Model the fold of this input.
Amino acid sequence: HNLRLFSYEDTRPQAWALQFDEELRRRIEARDHESLADYASLGEPARMAVPTPEHYLPLLVAWGAAGDDARAERHAAGFEAGALANDSYLFHPATPGAGGESFAQLP
Done:
């Protein structure tokens, strides 16, 4: 999310925020680990939605901790103040207690 573009006057989701939210959801469903790790390569909506990575990287850490074959479930979705996506995901390990290596090579 981009706190610099928050707006309590116009709370409708910004177009770039909607685009990145949808792209992120598609990439998670496709298990596209590589493009998710290199999110800036997903274009301007990604760069606007994630101007700094500290609130994005925990998504990858949680998924990696669940294991390579973890199933992603979108638990909640929504927007606030036009620029803050409130999505949350649950990652269900394919094998209980399994850990993963998918994101071990993050830059």
The radius of gyration is 14 Å.
